[in-house]
Amino acid sequence: MPDYIQLLPDAIANQIAAGEVVQRPASALKELLENAVDAGATQIQVVVKDAGKQLIQVIDNGKGMSPTDARMSFERHATSKIRTAQDLFAIRTFGFRGEAMASIAAVAQVELKTRTQEAEVGSLIHIEGSEVKKQEPVAVPVGTSVAMRNLFFNVPARRNFLKSNPVEMRHIVDEFQRVALSYPEIAFSLYQQDLETYNLLPGKLSQRIVGIFGKGIQNQLVPCEEETTHLSIKGYVGKPEYAKKTRGEQFFFVNNRYIKSSYLHHAVNTAYEGLIQADQHPFYVLFLDIDPATIDINVHPTKTEIKFEDERTIYAVIRSAVKQALGAHQVMPALDFSMDVNFQENWTTNPQVSVDVDREYSYKTYNTPEFQRASVSGWERLFEGDTPASISQKSPAFSGDDQELLTFQSRATAGEVSKVLEQEAGTGTTFQVERSYIVAQMSTGLLIVDQQLAHERILYERYLKQLQTTHGASQQCLFPTVLTLNPADFALVMDILPELVSLGFLVDEFGKDSVVIRGVPAETQVKNEKELFEGLLEQYKNFKNELSLDKKENLARSLSKRSCLKKGQKLDAQEMETLVGQLFACPNPNYSPSGNKTFVKLDLTSIHAFFAK
């Protein structure tokens, strides 16, 4: 009987490993940056072209490699970190499995230049598809330069799987930010298409955060520090009033290694309980220093997920540390970035501050304004024989191209309810409750409409139609607004720019990571174009993280949610009639884009049942 089992050739084995390690250009950049950090570099430069598809080059001034080490670095399971099995329980560096360089070389054209301090000349190695094409001496400075060209050149299916350049560049920027945050004492720079995107000087963690996320975050930071026998925590958390709807600026580092953990994220969110809304996420950059023997980092190919020996204790310590930082912030002065803000002052040493944190917390600074309940005085007037309101043929709040929708004509397709409204709309009485709900009287009962959800459905249908026809009216801003974004958001705007134009936005590139807003959709009733645009981006990212939507669907949902009428906004009779009329002219008036009911019908039978004996 013949033997069927045989060892795979190295080239095939490396390509299989690359499927897990190198998923996209950002994955390769992560591995190259971590190798540069492990080499003891104090300056790291990254050059990216065509969103990493054409070139990713990482240049460092680390200790470099000898010719033998340079060649061995491309072999599978060749590593300088592991000698015995016990070393697995004391890992504090990044790469240790020895698969990264071999995997990258299997799916790209790689050129390595390196030299040690002791050597007079360095080494050059050129590899394509795991095959060494060239190895020779070369004159290079001390350190290592790795250039990865034409990623997935020998795996066309994987290359076709890559997303658009703005999307891939956003992933590259995310990986760059994570490594740069891990080591604020190292200088990092990033060049995209020969243009400088980041130039981060070595310094304190606070300065690195400001360098990455902009000066606007400077006043949002609250230092957080905690020392226990199990672990130590250092870093910064954001003030509650700056919490966002999206999860994009939350960073956990365990022994300087970036990790993802929904469990620990929940610990931080719990500490903010009562200070932010349930659907908001605070900013934080937290470093956990823990004994490597109590964690397992070798549970995922990208090493972004780790296992803790005692997760509950870590959860409690993080929650307590963040709560303590927020409580102390009420008596601490504003951060002074000219001083060393990295944990020089311990708030518990202040004699004016009680150490009984749970008893002395006062959240008044962060409490959201109390909801002002609308006055219910004068309700008797509802029964004083108001004359029926008629449908207005023109409303200032809902003027535009859809004025023909103000009557219930043949476009109403909402079934029995819409037919009843069509018959009764001219004779019913419409009024507002709590400035949130519209109550319309019908011969068969009452119709209660949520004004925010109804308007969101109307705008969603309108924006989706505009995106499909690539035509949207714009209203020009009296004064164009210049908006400076972080590199990731700027790349996102460039990616969805054609769709923004279809909606009616007039947006142009305006220098490095900046755009100028010259116009907004004509139907939006906004006073602050900057606030609308920033809210649209945040909502778009939120939907992108939570739902699987294409760009047009996502944008229509995001803009309708951000520009619709809000609860608490007073409407006159004409505006209410117009809103109800436009709702039932929609193809699907029963539900908002998020799936919530837009109206409830209360028939006479149900009303009579309330008072039946």
Key descriptive features of the protein:
single chain, alpha+beta, Heat Shock Protein 90, Ribosomal Protein S8, Chain: A, domain 1, 5-stranded mixed β-sheet, 18 helices, 33% helix
Folded structure, characterized:
The chain has 613 residues and is an alpha+beta fold. The chain folds into 3 domains: 194 residues, 2-Layer Sandwich (Heat Shock Protein 90); 155 residues, Ribosomal Protein S5, domain 2 (2-Layer Sandwich); 228 residues, MutL, C-terminal domain, regulatory subdomain (Ribosomal Protein S8, Chain: A, domain 1, 2-Layer Sandwich). It has 18 helices and 22 strands. The strands form 5 sheets. The protein has an 8-stranded mixed β-sheet with strand order 5-4-3-6-2-1-7-8. Strands 9-10-13-11-12 form a 5-stranded mixed β-sheet, sandwiched between helices. α15 crosses α16. The protein is elongated, with a radius of gyration of 30 Å. The termini are far apart.
Question: Any idea of the CATH topology of the largest domain?
Answer: Ribosomal Protein S8, Chain: A, domain 1
CATH architecture assignment name of the largest domain:
2-Layer Sandwich
- Approximately what portion of the residues adopt beta-strand conformation? 15-25%
- Computed over alpha carbons, the radius of gyration is 30 Å
Tell me the strand order in the biggest sheet: 5-4-3-6-2-1-7-8
Averaging pLDDT over every residue, what do you get? 78
Number of helices: 18
Main sheet makeup: 8 strands, mixed
- Quaternary form: single chain
Q: Can you identify the CATH class of the largest domain? A: Alpha Beta
Name of the CATH homologous superfamily of the largest domain: MutL, C-terminal domain, regulatory subdomain
User: Total domains, how many?
Assistant: 3
